[in-house]
Backbone:
């Protein structure tokens, strides 16, 4: 491309680049402020001077990590998120395979009933969800908190859309070779769904790691709290602001790592999982 054309294109795109940079700065500023406050324990927060401190201290992080509750809350969040991701992906992929490739009575009706669940606000299901889990003696337990969130209609829908694009000839060839339904699902369908599973895994992990309402309602014992609920209770315990911000930074790190590791699959999955 000639130099003049490149310069013309750069000038034409410059306003858009400036706008995107400004949006990125505004979006990232709360995270930057959170980190800066965490590195200034015992100091009054004065804007804008506190955003550019002369000295930094990790004392607040040490207090957060040495706390009796925060490591336990982090472990509970990890269990809640990781186990939920595994179960949601397993059930969603099975259901998606059935709706995409199997023929059975009432398939379309059942599928649209699942889709109708997406139109119901989540908050309206909290009370019946609480009553059902309570009737099963699952309140204030880890399994009760997880079990209520593993039926994910959106994940099932996206898996169905993705699996629908897998050629039927590939599945028919496996049947001719004598493969059973589970073997076809496990050895052929699942490997083909890695991009969308990475995408859904990222979304489901972030949703469960940041979930607040259901864990707050279903868990009464402090030792069973997840990080989001536990950090909220710190406000009532007069914990120093820097320690709270340090705990918030610690809770943010796993989600950042997950996104960075799965970014390649995430972008590819978003591009390939649109409605067909």
Residues:
């Amino acid at each position: 491309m000639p130099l003049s054309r490149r310069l013309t294109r750069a000038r034409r795109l410059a306003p858009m680049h400036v706008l995107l940079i400004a949006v990125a700065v505004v979006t990232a500023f709360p995270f930057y402020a959170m980190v800066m406050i965490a590195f200034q324990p015992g100091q009054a927060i004065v804007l804008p001077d506190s955003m550019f401190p002369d000295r930094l201290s990790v004392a607040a992080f040490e207090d957060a990590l040495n706390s009796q509750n925060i490591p336990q809350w982090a472990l509970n969040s990890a269990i809640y998120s990781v186990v939920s991701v595994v179960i949601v992906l397993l059930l969603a992929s099975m259901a998606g395979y059935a709706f995409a490739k199997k023929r059975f009575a009432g398939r379309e009706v059942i599928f649209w009933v699942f889709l109708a669940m997406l139109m119901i606000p989540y908050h309206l299901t909290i009370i019946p969800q609480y009553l059902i889990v309570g009737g099963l003696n699952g309140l204030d337990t880890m399994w009760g908190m997880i079990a209520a969130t593993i039926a994910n209609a959106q994940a099932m829908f996206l898996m169905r859309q993705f699996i629908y694009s897998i050629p039927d000839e590939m599945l028919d060839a496996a049947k001719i070779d004598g493969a059973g339904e589970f073997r076809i699902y496990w050895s052929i369908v699942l490997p083909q769904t890695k991009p969308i599973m990475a995408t859904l895994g990222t979304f489901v992990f972030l949703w469960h790691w940041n979930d607040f309402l259901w864990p707050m309602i279903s868990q009464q014992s402090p030792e069973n709290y997840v990080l989001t609920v536990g950090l909220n209770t710190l406000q009532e315990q007069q914990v120093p602001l820097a320690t709270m911000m340090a705990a918030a930074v610690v809770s943010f790190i796993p989600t950042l790592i997950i996104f960075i590791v799965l970014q390649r699959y995430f972008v590819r999955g978003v591009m390939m999982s649109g409605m067909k």
The longest helix spans residues 3-38. The two ends are 36 Å apart (CA to CA). The mean pLDDT is 84.
